[in-house]
User: Fold this.
Amino acid sequence: MKPLVGITASDYQDETYYMTKTAYINAILLSGGIPILLPYTSDFEECKNIITKLDGLMIPGGIDVSPLMYREEPLPKVNKSIRNMDLYEIELIREAQKQNKPILAICRGMQILNVAFGGTLYQDIYEQKAASLCHIQSMDIRSEMTHSVSIRTDSRLFPIYEQVKILVNSYHHQAVKDLADTLLPAAFSADQILEACESKDGRIIGIQWHPEALINTDYKTQKLFRYFIELC
Assistant:
């Protein structure tokens, strides 16, 4: 049977419907999984039941993670976050870990993953002078490679990409600052922004770039999603 992969959905663009970008859905379908959309709710007690019915969890990109989630007040450029969505995804992530269900977290997903396990974020990598490269490329060229990333050879990610340096796309102004103790660094940009992290057993992976936009053109990205589906 094909594994069921839950993908969180939001209503931040229009409160009349929930959405998840088709690229995430297609990436799961093309890799052999069945995507199940998970609209966020304030009923966090249901998270245990939801994860029980799934074989894996994907947390996609999206709006900013609220700094309140890691005990900071927001800087001026952090002007769009949804508290219940943060809390819901955090609860799903923690429950998936408890039930040993694989997690693939992308962009915002990697950031909320880190926060869920006790880490912190740069609220704005430019205002806080953490980055010197372009990490926010134009949204109309989502599959264009913008900068390089160096993958640690001792990471679980390295056998997937089989290269120390790869090129990636990039759309983010927040990033991991203090990595959670339960996660390991897996890749960095040239200006030392953390671009990937993982659990020791490789069943949890965080990716800061957007592999879902590359799956149709990049063989190594296809391997990443197939690895996740095999875990599921």
Residues 28 and 35 are 6 Å apart (CA to CA). The helical segments are 22-30, 47-52, 83-98, 108-116, 158-161, 219-231. The chain has one domain: 4-231.
